[in-house]
């Protein structure tokens, strides 16, 4: 694996070779200077790889004002290889793809996605708040170009696309996996499924129906009481795709740019409109909305749940209330 990654970097197989790196006691996706920086045995990264397709802040067009106003769209993307993406994040990218390709296709997102190669790795050490095993997102058979599984002394590599196949043939030394190595991969995956500490007390298919009858439940008020409205849960989520759009006009008033930046429904002003009204003016409404978005609204629109069970929201929440699994289990029990 080290040789493969070092060769990708050395031969400049893409403008950016990005992978999971240790940062203090956490993990992040960042540009790799060499293969030694890559950590494939991590639990979860602080931010999901979504940031490479939907950056925290992004210019969408530049404009000129004055006698001859004009507008120039901005869509930039580097060819990028992402190494070490866990299956739940791949599932989240599949949901983001659905959001940004249907209804209103988004050229900025699509350009970045087209130029990305995804090398996944199975998550063998789930974080203590993850519940992917309950959502069928702990492993995936789609959404990657290559998928790596650590079987101890080597990696089993699954080829997902022709692009992945070409990359592997060009930059790595490989051979057909033996039956015993494939059995080793199955064993590693099975073992990892037993490591999850949080689980849903229902199947994923039951969640939309549960929410259908839970709108007036006191669970939302009780759970949201300690909420700080900090927005951390939505900022770290791989399936949250909301953004705010602003204009930045130069002091000279003759030019400027329109940019978008991450926004989230748990922030107080998110649903505030120009006339001053706020459609979700208290934390109970915002908390409930987030749960419905995770468990019902996106399922209805795109056929996929809006949560992949990564546990990042629960890890980030100082009030310790953000996990959808806890709320869904409480609703089921009430
Ligand atoms: S809601 Fe929480 S657990 Fe679900 S995908 Fe988002 S961050 Fe992960
Ligand atoms: S649920 Fe937690 S992380 Fe989310 S806004 Fe409230 S306090 Fe912040």
- As laid out across the biggest beta sheet, the strand order is 2-1-5-6-7-8
Task: Give the mean pLDDT.
Answer: 96
- What is the β-strand count? 10
Ligand inventory reads: iron/sulfur cluster
Task: Count every helix, treating DSSP H or I runs of 4 or more residues as helices.
Answer: 12
Report the β-strand fraction as a percent range.
Answer: 15-25%
How many domain modules?
1
**Considering DSSP H and I runs of 4 or more, what fraction of the residues is helical?**
25-40%
Outline type: globular
Largest sheet: 6 strands, mixed
Distance between the termini: 49 Å
Q: What structural class do the secondary elements suggest?
A: alpha/beta
Query: What is the radius of gyration computed over CA atoms, rounded to a whole number of angstroms?
Result: 21 Å
Low-pLDDT regions: none
In sequence order, what are the helices and strands, one letter per element? HEEEEEHHEHEEHHHHHEEHHH
Polypeptide structure, described:
- The protein has 334 residues and is an alpha/beta fold.
- It has one domain (2-333).
- The protein has twelve helices and ten strands.
- Strand 1 and strand 2 (26-31) form a beta hairpin.
- Bound molecules: iron/sulfur cluster (SF4) (2 copies).
- The site of one iron/sulfur cluster (SF4) has 14 residues, from helix 9.
